[in-house]
Structure formats: C-alpha cells, structure tokens
Specification:
The complex is a heterodimer of chains A (121) and B (219). With 121 residues, chain A is α+β, with helices and mostly antiparallel strands. Chain A has helices spanning 4-15, 28-34, 37-51, 108-117, and strands spanning 22-24, 58-59, 65-66, 69-70, 74-83, 86-95, 100-107. Chain A has one domain (4-117). Helix content of chain A is 36%, strand content 31%. Classes of the chains: A alpha+beta (121), B alpha+beta (219).
Amino acid sequence: MVNPKEFKKKIEVSISQDYKVEFLGKNFDQIANLLTESKTEKIYRWIKNIIERKIEPISIGAKKPYKEWMINELLTFRYPFSIRNTEYRILFVKVKNSAYIKFHLGDHNYYDKVRKNLSLI
Amino acid sequence: MIIYNPHNETTLSERLKEAGELLAQIPAKYCFITGSFLYKEKYKDIDVFVITRSKTEITLKNKKVKITTIDFNDLYSLFYRSVSKSCIAKSILPAKQLKVTLTDYWRVINEAIPTLLNQKDKFHKNVRFLILYTEYFKNDEILDTFQLNEKINSFKDYNEVMEYIKRELSGIINKYAKPSYVKRFFYTQAGYYKGLTEYAAQRYLYTLTHNVVKGIAHG
C-alpha cells in the first residue's frame, strides 16, 4: 500500500522540472492506495526509463486540441497493470522536447475517456 | 442459444452447455462467448462480450470470465465483426455495415509499434489489432478469434511481426488509396516521426511512411 501523496511527490522528484505535472484520475488516490510496494517500484522504474528515453512513446499526428496544446505536440507513454483481476492504466503525457504535463491513473472506463481526448484508439 | 461457426471449427460440446449457462446469467439481450474456451481443452479466460448501453458493471461468480462491454456505436467496427464471427450467442446478434478506413489502419499501426517494442516478450498480446487490420486489408477477410490466434502464433517473435508489416503495407496502400491521398497523408505523418527518430518505434514508423511514399513515386 502506498501513500498517494508520497507517490505523487516521488514522481515529481524523478521528473525534476519547474512545470507542475497534474495528477488526474477519478479514483486516483484509491487506486494508489491499492498499489503494493513491488508494483509501485515497477512504476517508478518505468518513469526512470521514460526519462532515460528507454520507453517508446505514442505520438499522434492529429491537429486537434488537448487542453492548451495540440495533440501532435504530445507524446503519450502507456503503462498497463492489474490489481486483483481489475485492469488499470497509466497515461503519462509529455510535450515533445519539453515538460511532462499530465499523469493519468484510472480504470478502464477512465482510460477510455482519456484515450478519446488524446485521439488514441 | 445461437451458434455462429462459419468455418465449421470443432467446438467442445461440453463447453456449449457451459457457455449457455453463463450467458443466461448475464442481464443483457445481446451477449456472446468466443475464444479458446470454445475450442481448447486448456484455456486461460472465458471471453464474454456484452453489447449494452448500460454503464453498470456486470460480474459473474466464475473468476475465469472476462467481460468486455461493446457499445452499440461500435457495432460497425472490425473488432466487433471479428469477435462475433465465431461465437456462442444468447440471441441473434445485431449486424451493422462495417466501417473501416486506411486512416484507422494507420492509427492501429501507429499505436501498436511502440507498444510492441515496449513489451517485446509479450508480443502475442499486443498485436491482435495490428494483425486483424492487416489481414483484412490484405485479403478482404475478417479473421475470427480462432483464425487470429493461429495467425499470431505463426510469428516466432516481434521482429517477424515488424517485417510482416513492412512487407505488406505498401501493397495494401497501393491497392486501396489514391496516390494524391497517399502523398498528402503519409508526407504529413512522416513529418511528425522525423523529429522523433531517437525512438526506435518512431524511426520504424518514419521508414514505413517513407517506403509508402517511395512506392507511390515508383508506381
């Protein structure tokens, strides 16, 4: 079990940037509370690998807005995992050659909503 | 109970009964079971699909049951046509005209390649859409879950999948798209990938777009 505040703090420290990344998800804290130590460590390792450019992002060539950006300016990193038979997804969104802007964590319904906003299939 | 079995696959008779019992527990008119549960002695999950507008989560006691909800708006999709092609359904399933475009196919490739390279060892899990769309455009055939599994299992590793896409894509694009569309669409896409070639997936996608445009230029 992980403290959601500590979880967010550790991610902020890893990405070390001036821009404040937004943590989003309808049940973000509840899901974070369900994470075991080993699952949390895997997520931290995944973030470290993103920073070191070892994880392949998805880029979408759509000229549609997403918040204050255009979708074709963004890179999305997707991390699927499951807890007790329930599937969850993290979508970590970055502006190309710039800051990480959104960290989405949610179940399938939430993921479906976000992926539509990001023009993912 | 309706059995959809266009290729006369051998289904396990005891599973038909079990499938009927499971479907009876689902509070929806349109639901069906497909996948290895119907054909294989050993199976991991029981893939149940429910067509509904309801947001209420459906759960069954059987822990192996994996329920996927399909919205009525998704009945035109290749995914629905594939999963419902060979299945056991509670009642006659609704049918809609298939709507699938080359742009959809490119979006599938665009997302599948990074996912494939991020999980090279689990490539079987991540290439379903990629193979389904490629086979549809290549042969005008919608693979059912059984055929799709067979096709996926014919690849030894992720490299073979990447080679297969590289081999088939230009032919597919030439077959379906007008050169003017290809040039406009793929030049634009190539521009997005060009600035990201430090990533292997984006580099591969850039090469694909480049090959397609080159193929058009050389007739």
